[in-house]
């Protein structure tokens, strides 16, 4: 009898001391999040065990009724295409896309990766626009016509655009799930390049581009900005090597869906 009591107290102490406490103390439960849908959302760092063991946050009565209301009013765009609407902190073996589910912006449509699956980027390289040090310049097809314009500006101003940076990979956790973006940079959706210019009066780096003392560079940058593209030298925090089309501002929802598609499939 005494030994049972000792065992019981031992379990109790272990239970309280366990690092699941940060989750359970707020009403959540620690689960392998790949196998559950948590309408209250999922939080990392609150549970013992491997990285798939996450805190399924408590869904109180308001949360339950909200989920039911959103599902019955507004999820059909997602569910009719075979997807599931859930808070995007939940596991999704495919990718999340926005604009197809009821509720707040974090409630998104998880659809299986088999619907897309391939990396939708194109490689761009010409005699006047090419990657620095063998870099492959990859952009999203919607930005390709802008690259064609950039190429024609380079030709008419007599410069070569040396691209140091185009599409950027970011946003996947260790389980391969695409995480919400930390920043909405246009590099993350293949709608931006960073560059230096090779000109008849020498190489023009960030300082040179910003100082505007190279007439060939000025010719090029003027054409870039008059075409409607944005030059980073005009930004509040100047980034003189940067050119983009401002997609993150002009169409945040398109930015979002490109982000989840490209970041899931372009690795
Ligand atoms: C939009 O993208 C630019 C360049 O990628 C970035 O500097 C800026 O912070 C972004 N703005 C927002 C609101 O996300």
TrEMBL record:
Residues 1-18 form the signal peptide. The keyword Transport does not apply. Gene3D superfamilies: 3.30.1380.10. It holds the Pfam family Peptidase_M15_4. InterPro entries: Peptidase_M15C, Zn_M74/Hedgehog-like. PANTHER family: LYSOZYME G FAMILY MEMBER, PEPTIDASE M15C DOMAIN-CONTAINING PROTEIN. This is Peptidase M15C domain-containing protein. It comes from Ciona savignyi (Pacific transparent sea squirt).
């Amino acid at each position: 009898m005494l030994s049972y009591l000792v065992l019981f107290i031992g379990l109790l102490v272990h239970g309280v001391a366990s690092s699941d406490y940060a989750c359970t103390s707020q009403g959540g439960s620690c689960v392998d999040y790949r196998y559950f849908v948590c309408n209250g959302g999922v939080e990392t760092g609150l549970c013992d065990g491997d990285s798939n063991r996450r805190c399924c946050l408590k869904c109180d009565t308001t949360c339950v009724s909200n989920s039911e209301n959103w599902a019955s009013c507004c999820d059909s765009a997602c569910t009719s295409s075979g997807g599931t609407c859930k808070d995007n902190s939940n596991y999704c073996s495919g990718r999340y896309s926005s604009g197809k589910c009821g509720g707040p912006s974090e409630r998104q449509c998880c659809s299986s990766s088999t619907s897309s699956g391939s990396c939708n980027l194109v490689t761009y390289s010409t005699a006047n626009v090419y990657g620095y040090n063998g870099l492959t310049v990859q952009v999203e097809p919607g930005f390709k016509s802008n690259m064609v314009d950039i190429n024609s500006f380079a030709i008419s101003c007599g410069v070569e655009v040396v691209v140091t940076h185009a599409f950027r990979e970011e946003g996947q956790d260790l389980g391969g799930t695409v995480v919400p973006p930390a920043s909405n940079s246009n590099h993350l959706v293949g709608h931006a390049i960073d560059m230096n210019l090779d000109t008849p009066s020498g190489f023009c780096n960030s300082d040179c581009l910003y100082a505007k003392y190279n007439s060939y560079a000025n010719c090029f940058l003027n054409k870039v900005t008059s075409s409607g593209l944005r030059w980073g030298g005009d930004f509040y925090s100047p980034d003189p090597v940067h050119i983009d089309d401002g997609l993150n501002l002009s169409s945040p929802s398109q930015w979002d869906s490109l982000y989840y598609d490209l970041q899931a499939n372009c690795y």
